[in-house]
Amino acid sequence: MAQAALQRTLNKMGNMIAMGMADDMSVASTVNKTSISSYRGVPMEESDAESSESPYKFYRVMVKPHSQLQFSLRYQPLGVEKCQILLPIVLAGQAEFEPLKRFIIAHSIQPILSLSTREITFREVIGKKFSGSKIIKVLRADKVESSPYTADIAVKNEESYPVHFRLELDKTAKKDAKKPSKCWQIAPYKNEIVPGDIVLIKISFAPTDDILHQNNLNLFIVKNDKKDENNPIDKKTPKEKPYFQIRLNGQATFPKLSFENEIFLPPVPLHVRSTKLMLIYNSGYDGFDLKYEIAKDCPVEITVKFPDGTWFEDESIPIEISFVSTIATAFTTIVDLIDVDGHCFPLTVNGLSSNSVLSNQSYWYGHECQIARPDELSMPQIAEISQDNNHDEKKDDTKIAAMCQLLPQVVPPNILDDISMLLMFLESNGYMQFPNGIVHFPSDIVEGNGEPVFKLLKFFTGKKIFGTTKYTKKTKKMELQNIKTLKQKITTPKILLTSLTKI
């Protein structure tokens, strides 16, 4: 019953009214035209009985015994009107409670001046550039006066007589104690508007740092030097209080390059080039020649190319990073991208090149290759089969780059986890045989006491791996020794496994 009575009261309201604690004049949230907003320190709970069809929200407010809770009321009229409404507060479980009945009476009048907006924000969007938004960037000293960001406010005279006004920035606004903000400029700061006329006020924002700037722009109605009792301005507007307050917000950012800060080049066999193409995004630059620098301690030769050139004035620019190695290696290096001011933006590049069958699974899915072994003790060699079945050892970079583009950048995990493709590859070429097969990986390997793993390691290294001798008494010391020996065996330079992550 209480909620139904409150619903009827709210339906009679035709104005924007919100309630809140008296010590905090800002409304936390407003739902449709009327709501009771929750505040810090006040236990307000949204009612479970709220109807999904109701345009309003109801809250359950708990007041401690022998205490009082003060509210402030903010009224935002939608037009020139008078309204009288009942304060929307009822006791839980009761339809009406006479001591709580309070009427709110509000009158709205025609303003002397009207504004197109009461808040200006310079943060992300001032105008459109390319397909994205123009970034509000920190201005250099030589562009503070010549190229500030601007926005306009329209001021209209709603009265039948000329109105003088002036604009002043709020001197009580919080500023940086070390360096006062001088980023706001107003023009014109005073003017006279004839009846029905509109004057545009230009707000200029020239940031020299990347902190948040906030201020209030006060609009004062200027009285005549000689008071005229017939002029309502002399009666309506006291000189010491602003007629309007316009909120100014602005925050800039330093120009920067935006991109994925770490890339992984696809793993490839030896003598094969691995290539990765990515985009670099322009966040605030007008146009400059993009430069780069590769870390000097990089173990391989990194090649950086710009397919569309290094002049950077569009929204994005492609960059191609590649490498080729003649020895088994895994590396991490840094490529610094340098802007017009000499600022470096590091890009971490990871790569792997080896003849490991396990490491190059993604490569096998995109290319047709074969494994050759000159003699029993030598390291197996991997060679790619060309389209005409003739191996060309000296392929130019163009053909290699074209083949690398066919290589999938990311192979789905479910494919890499499927060991059947690797077993089929080894058995079909006569390299290894698995009589019992491996259906469930890795449980079948565990049940076979790791025998397939030892076969695989023996094939890769050409050496006999421990484990054929059966211990009659297993101890913890023997197990640790076995693990140590296995690590030494599979990390030798002649093996095709280039890294050991966990064992």
What gross morphology would you assign?
Answer: elongated
Number of strands: 30
CATH topology name of the largest domain: Immunoglobulin-like
As a percent range, the share of helical residues equals 10-25%
GO cellular component, one term: cilium
InterPro entries: Ig-like_fold (IPR013783)
Protein name: Flagellar associated protein
Keywords: Cell projection, Cilium, Flagellum
Summarize the structure.
The protein has 503 residues and is α+β, with helices and mostly antiparallel strands. The chain contains 9 helices and 30 strands. A 5-stranded mixed beta sheet has the order 9-18-17-13-15, with no helix packed on it. Strands 8-12-16-14 form a 4-stranded antiparallel beta sheet, with no helix packed on it.
Note the main attributes of this structure.
503 residues; alpha+beta; Immunoglobulin-like; five-stranded mixed sheet; four-stranded antiparallel sheet; 31% strand; elongated; disordered C terminus; cilium; cell projection; Flagellar associated protein
